Amino acid sequence: xxxxxxxxxxxxxxxxxxxxxxxxxxxxxxxxxxxxxxxxxxxxxxxxxxxxxxxxxxxxxxxxxxxxxxxxxxxxxxxxxxxxxxxxxxxxxxxxxxxxxxxxxxxxxxxxxxxxxxxxxxxxxxxxxxxxxxxxxxxxxxxxxxxxxxxxxxxxxxxxxxxxxxxxxxxxxxxxxxxxxxxxxxxxxxxxxxxxxxxxxxxxxxxxxxxxxxxxxxxxxxxxxxxxxxxxxxxxxxxxxxxxxxxxxxxxxxxxxxxxxxxxxxxxxxxxxxxxxxxxxxxxxxxxxxxxxxxxxxxxxxxxxxxxxxxxxxxxxxxxxxxxxxxxxxxxxxx
Length: 335
Prior knowledge:
By secondary structure, the protein is an all-alpha fold.
């Protein structure tokens, strides 16, 4: 098997990962519509996050058990990873973000959270020696500039405590992509999503019971797509579409793309959120937001091109003989 063949396989994995990443971002992007409809009737963010994660964990349980198929040793050996993933990347990230929103404009909080993609680039450099090349740097600048246009954060001075919460949310986002990118020997994507949500739900329940996280719900009908509907409908959407399916799909995509590219494609969540808010809530985006979306896409394309460039460089190496083939098993993307 030659490196050229390996490069073709890697491109196929990259295309599949890109498709899954876009799908996951679209599903994550629905959360704002469902959450807005519920909060308008009196639900607190803490209650929304707790319901979202707990129901998603229940929905994923049979699928996670099937994906393990008796290999519970994987779960035991990954206990520390699961605890960190659930506490920081699932529950912590959302809790930090909602705390930031209480003190900052939503746009500012989102900018701080998605600044976590720069931490992913820094991690790849420090941990694996993958120094960011010019295309990645240019893509980072373009993506964040486009995000600035899309979110259009405005207002007065910044609350330093709110900024701290936003930075913590960005750290949680970075931890999510880094931990989700683990390949060989890792839990199946659905199992990791499920285990992380179980840990996250239990952690949030502690905050709810102790009063550290305001918890209030409502049984009033909600307005969604200009129609009145019972509250379980958006809760189901928030838990199943925007959590269970979104997390499992996103983790699978991150395994195929790697943490760096997946984190940049994850920016599409914001664009999808704007689109769904337009379709469901009539919140039409302005010209600057549309322009920002194009700039974000350009930034993602630059980072993706940089990643493809590395794969293309590997293909230029001479073919490896069959006798040497076993040494290629891990490959540049395998560990």
